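Morning, I've got a small favour to ask if you have a moment. I'm working through a protein record and want to make sense of it properly. The fold is given in discrete form, as structure tokens running alongside the sequence. Can you walk me through what the tokens say about the fold? Thanks so much in advance, here it is:
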Amino acid sequence: MQDLIAWKDNPNKKPLVVQGVRQCGKSFLIEEFAKRYYTDYQYYRFDKDAKIKDFFEQDLDPKRIIKDLGLIRGKAIKPCETLIIFDEIQECGNAVTSLKYFHEDTPEYNIISAGSLLGVAMKKGMSFPVGKVDFLTLHPMNFYEFLYAQNPMLAEELKKCTFKDVIWKDFRNELLEKYKMFQIIGGMPEAVQTWLNTASIEEVGKKQDEILLGYQKDFVKYADTKDYPKISVVWHYTK
């Protein structure tokens, strides 16, 4: 969140690309940021709304695209005030390319895009806007964040203490137990939330399987047909 705020306050900011593995919380983070720090935002998701893709087929004129995006929602998109969110942008190669022209021709508009496997998903012939976008990478939760989700006070104490502090004596067993659970549950937000809601390893396992299945479906979408069997074998082996 602090990185997003710094991006917003940067007078020389470029369209922002938030990268990360699928289901690590990119969409949630960006929309929460928009609600807190913008008076208005508009969310477009390329994997669900095919009509949005059509706006990028005619040409890549950012002024025309912004006008069309405003028309479809019935409200004008205002420079600096409206945050434009392009989610799953890897589903539309032209939209990725258009970020270059948003930066060059309409820098007054604030744009954040989110996507998984951006480099893999780009179709041949499409150009990535190298040097024309800012990047942030969102990772799954680390142990501190995992602990904070369960015991914020203990997490804050752990964050500011050293190995000489008494916390290691008084809370050693609890911290070790939490770390063992972290090794099993991992840092994917939905898996952690399932654990908080149910305290069931079985339910967490089901959620983890759903996430892994989503990754496997991505292989089908983005890998060449001839390569998919090999990728699938490697995937199942490493699991």
